[in-house]
Design brief:
Number of domains: 1
CATH class: Alpha Beta
Distance between the termini: 29 Å
Strand content: 25-35%
Structural class: alpha+beta
Oligomer: single chain
Radius of gyration: 18 Å
CATH architecture: 3-Layer(aba) Sandwich
Helix content: 10-25%
Length: 229
Amino acid sequence: AYLMYTSGSTGRPKGTAIEHHSAVTLLRWAADVFSDAAIAGVLASTSICFDLSVFEMFVPLSRGGKIILAQNALQLPWLPAAEQVTLLNTVPSAMMELLRIQGVPASVRIVNLAGEPLQRKLVQQIYQHPNIEKVYNLYGPSEDTTYSTFALIEKADLRPPSIGHPISNTQVYLLDAELQSVSDGTAGELCISGDGLARGYLGRPDLTAEKFIPDPFGVGRRLYRTGDL
């Protein structure tokens, strides 16, 4: 379906090869979670070089919604179609700045936050806008087609936001160096299996074999080792 190059700042860029069925997995999950009204107008402000753009473009267009284009999220208050935006899909730092400049239109109902750690203080600030109905915290590497887990952060929940549970057709494990499940309270590597996994890294069979390994919990499945603890 497409190639997404990642980690160019830390070394040789890796071309992550995403197949059509993996992108469809993301779209099907989104169809179960977000209503047609929620995605009637999605701000598309993320560069197509980054995987958040996959959600911003294809989720609304696959459901009859529209995308409102912007060079970056901070342009939102000055867009002619700003009042048509119903869903924001961005990083916490950008959302914090939008709140600071009072740049969130009254039309926005849903806020998706990903790509950076989410603090409870920011969630509380978002919910101070009476039009905001839901705030989601999302996590996922490009190697698993944008999003792997999600959590609805309730207005009354004062706990630190978690990354939630896996999206549909996805399995997430916390494993030790021997690929065994860790006990509660023990740090482990976050590993992902399911229909959203990429084919691998273009032209990098060695790295593909290192990061995409046989899933010890499912015959014929693969497991992606994120390196995240």
